[in-house]
Amino acid sequence: MYYTKDTVLFLNGNWIKASEAGISLFSQTLHYGNGVFEGLRSYDTQAGPQIFKAVEHFQRLHHSAQRMHIKLPYSPEEFTEIAYDLLKRNNLRNAYIRPLVFMGANMSLTLTDDIHILMTAWEWDKYFSKDQLKVMVSSYQRPNPKSFPVDAKVTGQYTNSILATTEAKNNGFDEALLLDMKGYVAEGPGANFFFEKNEKLYTPPMGNILPGITRATVMEYANELGCSVIEKHFEPEELIEADTAFFTGTASEIAGIKSIGGHNFKMNWEDTVAYSIFLMYRQRVTHSQYNDFTLV
Ligand code: PMP
Fold it and tell me: Which atom of ligand 1 is the closest one to the Cα of 153?
């Protein structure tokens, strides 16, 4: 699914066949999860494939790398150029792009200068196959920000996400919602969380979440619509009074939530402000409003 015999990827400055990419089995990333990555989407538009907020994503890659003391050899603009080149070489238009910074052989728990850059892309349909998700509050918490830079997209951190998703699926839910160490709602395994009440949006503040680019985009669009967005801590019990809720993320885009822990939200998804923002998002990433894209 992620590559065919013709797929070309970017590895350490070279363009090679995905099927021929060898990596060290002593990679520190493979053993200990010390690596950083990003996830971007490109959309087919009349002006050709456009990567949504590419520079912002590569700036966040730089931020993640800096938090883990990893030095990157390319600027966000150079990464963006490589990403467009990658799409062209693989003739991809609607695609998910995965840059990964991984470390070479080092079995010690120390830094290494052996830094590798991979960028690959594939066609990836909507992350969630359903429009309206059944969500459970996870028994797993997000990592304590004092143990870990939660604002960085670090590979090892996703073991927490995999555990939460597995628990949710094993219990008959579509997705998990994780709390922070104080019991406040934090985010999904790979997406930020919002709820809507009386035409206002609420979302957890920075501190225990990944600063999502889709989250920031939703806040911009809400502002344009004159809808207030309140960043605050809240417990899952407060969601009982909510009209609706949704996840935001590059892979999942804007995904409506039908219920949390078996409790259905009051409003029809299509009647909410969140749904208008969802429509704006779809229209802007796929159609004519190019000024919202990062053009290179
Ligand atoms: N939180 C986590 C833990 C994530 O992995 C992601 C996906 N990158 C998000 C939030 C959403 O971020 P974005 O909108 O930038 O994709």
Answer: 5
